[in-house]
Amino acid sequence: MQMPIPDARVLALKADLAARLRSVMPADAVIADPSETRAYECDGLSAYRCPPLLAVLPSTTQEVSDVLRICHAMGVPVVPRGSGTSLAGGAMPTADCVILGVARLNAVLEVDYADRIIRVQSGRTNLSVTGAVEAEGFFYAPDPSSQLACAIAGNIAMNSGGAHCLKYGVTTNNLLGVTMVLMDGTVIEVGGAHLDAPGLDLLGVICGSEGQLGVVTEATLRILRKPEGARPVMIGFDDNAVAGACVSDIIRAGVLPVAIEFMDRPCIRACEAFAKAGYPDCEALLIIEVEGSEAEITHQLSLIAAIAARHDPVEVREARDADQAARIWLGRKSAFGAMGQINDYMCLDGTIPVTELPHVLDRIRQMSAEYGLDVANVFHAGDGNMHPLILYNANTPGELEKCEALGAAILTLCVEVGGCLTGEHGVGIEKRDLMHVQFNTADLAAQMAVKDVFDPGWLLNPAKVFPLDVSEERRRGGGQPAPAGPRTSGEPTGALRDTSDQKKGLAAA
Amino acid sequence: MTPASEDELAEVIGGAQGPFAVRGGGTRGVSCDGIALSTVGLSGITLYEPGALTLVVRAGTPLAEVERLLAAEGQRLAFEPCDMRRLLGTCGASTIGGVVATNASGPRRIQVGACRDHLLGVRFVDGMGQVVKNGGRVMKNVTGYDLVKLMAGAHGTLGVLTEVSLKVLPRPEAVATLVLDEPDAARAATAMAAALGSPFDVTGAAWVAGRVLIRLEGFAASVDDRAARLGAALGADRAEVDWDAVRDAHVFADRPGDVWRVSVRPSALAATVGALQAGGAVEVAADWGGGLIWVLCAADRDLRRDLAQGHATRVRGAALPDVPRFQPEAAQIAAISAGLRQRFDPRGILNQGVMG
C-alpha cells in the first residue's frame, strides 16, 4: 500500500506545533512522545502501520476548532479518528499528520423521547447511544458489528451499516444533524432535530465522506422504539443458488425481515467448529430474523417457512425461545472469531445485486482455487452486502500481497456485476486504488470538487479515498482553483446497470 | 429543448451559454428564467428487479408510469411522492426526475425516510456538460462521496438528472387509520408522539382539520392487532382516511392565500402554531408527527418573521422581493452551498436562483 512521502517541512514543525497545540488545550491532550503516538499507528486494518507526528485528544468543539485552526495555519495534515475500528484504514496516520481523536467527546447532550432524537458528542460509542435510551424502550438502529467499540464519529465518516439495515437503513438514514468543524476552524451546524434540509442536503454528503470534509463533534440521531419482540429462523440448503432464490422469493412475497444473513459451507464449518451452535453441515445457511408483535412474528415466520419449503431445505429451525434464538445467532456472531482462530484473514465488503449471488459465489470459489487461498463467505443477503473473508498467513512472505490481489479481483467482480467496492466499511486506503474500477475521471472529479469546497487546502485525511495519482495535484498544490469555464467532456457513458464504462474504467486502471 | 438522450443533453449543456430552466413535468411550481430544458425525452425503465427491490429509470419517465409498473408487482415507492397539482393549480405529468430533484416525500417520511433515503444512484449532466454517475443500484454502497443525497432536493441546480436508481418496497396487505378528534395543537402533538413512540410501527401521523390521524400498515392480522391496541391506548377509533389528500395538502387546495411548508422538531408544533397565529391569521395542518406544518396565510406575509426555530419554504404564492422561496441559510452554510454550485455549474446556467 503506497502512501505519500512525508513532508519534511511538516516533520520539522513537530516541536513548534506541539507547543502551539498545548497553548489551547490541556497538556495531557497533546501526545508527542513516540512511545505514546505508537498507540495511534493503525486502525482495524492492522496490516499497515505508521505512527503520526502528534496525536491530540480534544474535549470540546472549541478545542477541535483550535487544533484545526492551528494545523491549517501551519499547513499540517490532520487525520480524524473515532475509535480506530475502521477495517479500511480510514484512520491510518501518515508520519507527517496530527491524529485528532474524538474519544474524550463522549457525552450525551440531549435526549428527547417526544421528538425521538438523541444528541451526543461524536466520540460516544455506538452501543452506548442505545445504552442511554434503552431504559425507556428506545434504541439507535445502525448496528455495525464493532458497535461495542466504534464511535459515532467513525459511523458518520464511513456511513456504517449493520445487520439490521434492511429494515432500518444505515447511518445516513438515521442521522439528522451534525456540529462539524471545518479545516480552518470554522464551526458549522448542519441539520438538527427536524427531518429535512432547507437547502442543499449537505448532511447527505458529509455522511460517508471519510473524515475528509470536516471533523464532526456532535450528532443528532434518530432513536426508535424497540419492537415488542424478534425471532430468528435458520434454514439450510444444499445449493447456494437455491438459497439465493429463496431470499429473492421472500422479498417478493412482501415479507421484509430485519435481517437476512447468509453463510456458505466454509464459513458454516468454521463457525460450527468454533462455536458449536449446532448448525447443519450444508452448502448454504440463512438466518432470517423478523420482529414486531407476537402476531406479526408468527405470521411472517409462517410465510417464510412456506416459501422455504418450496426450495427443498435441508433443515428449517425456528427459535422457540430466547435460548434457541441465541444459539442460532451464536455461530454467525462468532464468524470473525472463528476465522481468526484458523488464520489471518482479510474481510471484504463489496455489495452485489442480490440476483447475482449464485454467480458471484461460484466465481469466488473458482478464484479461491486459482489463488490457492481459502475464502469463507458470510454476508447480509437481503441487501447484497457480501463479506468474503480471505484466509492467509501473514508470516508467509508474499501471502499478504496474494491475498490483496485476490481481494481486488473479487471486488472488481462485484463492480462488474453491477455492485460496488464497499457496502459499509468505506474506501480508506484499502480500496483507494480500486476506485478507478467503479468510477471514471469525471465521476471522481465531481467527488473531489466537494472536498475542494469544504477543505480547499486538502489537509483533512488527504491520502484516502481517491487514488493518489488522481489527488496528487490537489494534495501538493493545496487544492484546486474553481474551474472558470466548460471543460471538455468525453468520458464514456452508460446506464447505471451498464458496466461498459466500468469496464473501460478497468482498462484505464 | 427536449434532448432525446443523455449524450444529447450533455452536448446541449456543454455547447450553449444558457441559462437553462430545467423542467420535468412542471407540476411542482419550480420555475426560473432561461431556455426551457425538458427531461421528458429521457424516458423509460432501464431495469426493474422486484426480487432485489431495485428500479433504475430514466429521469423524464412519468411518475404515473413508474407507479403502475411497481403496482403490478405488488410494490411501490415507499416515500410516497406527493402530487402538488391540485394544491398549486399546475397541470402536466410529474416525472421521476422532478420527484428526486425536489426530494418530494410524503407522510411515510417518519417511518421509511424521504426520497433521498430511497435513492440508490444517479446519473446527471453537470453545468459543464459532463456526465457524472454516483451511487449505483445496490442498497448498501459507501464507495466514495454520497453525491446521490446531494442531488436529491438540489432542484436541478447542480446538474440535470438523467437516470435514477431507487429502492422500492412491498405494498402492504392492509392499511388502517386511527382517528382522534383533537382541535388543540399541543394535545395533538402529544398524541402523535405517543403513537410514534409506541412499538406499533406507525407509518403516518398527521393532524388535519382538528383530527389526529395515525396510520398502520402491514399484514392484515398484524394491522388489526396493532390498531386495536394502539386505538385503546390513544382512545382513537378506526376510520377510512384518504392519505393521498393528507400527503398533497388538499385541505388548502382551492383556497386563496399563500401556502408554506414549515419544518420544526415535532414537539415545537404548538409553540410554532401559536407564534404564527400571533403574527396574523393562519390555518395549519401537520404531518410527520408535527414536524411538518402546512400553513395557509395571507399572500403578502413573510412567515419567517414569526418562526422561532426550524425553517420555512413557500410552496405557493407569488415571489416577494425580500422573501425568497427557500429559507436563507446561515452565512457559512450558504458559502458552502454557493461553493458547490460554483464547482458543479461554474457558469451558473442551471436553474439559476431557484433555491435562492
TrEMBL record, chain A:
<dbReference type="GO" id="GO:0071949">
    <property type="term" value="F:FAD binding"/>
</dbReference>
<dbReference type="InterPro" id="IPR036318">
    <property type="entry name" value="FAD-bd_PCMH-like_sf"/>
</dbReference>
<dbReference type="InterPro" id="IPR016169">
    <property type="entry name" value="FAD-bd_PCMH_sub2"/>
</dbReference>
<keyword id="KW-0560">Oxidoreductase</keyword>
<protein>
    <submittedName>
        <fullName>Glycolate oxidase</fullName>
    </submittedName>
</protein>
<feature type="compositionally biased region" description="Basic and acidic residues">
    <location>
        <begin position="498"/>
        <end position="509"/>
    </location>
</feature>
<feature type="domain" description="FAD-binding PCMH-type">
    <location>
        <begin position="48"/>
        <end position="226"/>
    </location>
</feature>
<dbReference type="Pfam" id="PF02913">
    <property type="entry name" value="FAD-oxidase_C"/>
</dbReference>
<keyword id="KW-0285">Flavoprotein</keyword>
<dbReference type="GO" id="GO:0016491">
    <property type="term" value="F:oxidoreductase activity"/>
</dbReference>
<dbReference type="InterPro" id="IPR016171">
    <property type="entry name" value="Vanillyl_alc_oxidase_C-sub2"/>
</dbReference>
<dbReference type="InterPro" id="IPR016164">
    <property type="entry name" value="FAD-linked_Oxase-like_C"/>
</dbReference>
<dbReference type="InterPro" id="IPR051914">
    <property type="entry name" value="FAD-linked_OxidoTrans_Type4"/>
</dbReference>
<keyword id="KW-0274">FAD</keyword>
<dbReference type="Pfam" id="PF01565">
    <property type="entry name" value="FAD_binding_4"/>
</dbReference>
<feature type="region of interest" description="Disordered">
    <location>
        <begin position="470"/>
        <end position="509"/>
    </location>
</feature>
<dbReference type="InterPro" id="IPR016166">
    <property type="entry name" value="FAD-bd_PCMH"/>
</dbReference>
<dbReference type="InterPro" id="IPR004113">
    <property type="entry name" value="FAD-bd_oxidored_4_C"/>
</dbReference>
<dbReference type="InterPro" id="IPR006094">
    <property type="entry name" value="Oxid_FAD_bind_N"/>
</dbReference>
From TrEMBL, chain B:
<dbReference type="InterPro" id="IPR016166">
    <property type="entry name" value="FAD-bd_PCMH"/>
</dbReference>
<dbReference type="GO" id="GO:0003824">
    <property type="term" value="F:catalytic activity"/>
</dbReference>
<dbReference type="InterPro" id="IPR006094">
    <property type="entry name" value="Oxid_FAD_bind_N"/>
</dbReference>
<dbReference type="InterPro" id="IPR016164">
    <property type="entry name" value="FAD-linked_Oxase-like_C"/>
</dbReference>
<dbReference type="Pfam" id="PF01565">
    <property type="entry name" value="FAD_binding_4"/>
</dbReference>
<feature type="domain" description="FAD-binding PCMH-type">
    <location>
        <begin position="1"/>
        <end position="171"/>
    </location>
</feature>
<protein>
    <submittedName>
        <fullName>Glycolate oxidase FAD binding subunit</fullName>
    </submittedName>
</protein>
<dbReference type="InterPro" id="IPR016169">
    <property type="entry name" value="FAD-bd_PCMH_sub2"/>
</dbReference>
<keyword id="KW-0274">FAD</keyword>
<dbReference type="InterPro" id="IPR036318">
    <property type="entry name" value="FAD-bd_PCMH-like_sf"/>
</dbReference>
<dbReference type="GO" id="GO:0071949">
    <property type="term" value="F:FAD binding"/>
</dbReference>
<keyword id="KW-0285">Flavoprotein</keyword>
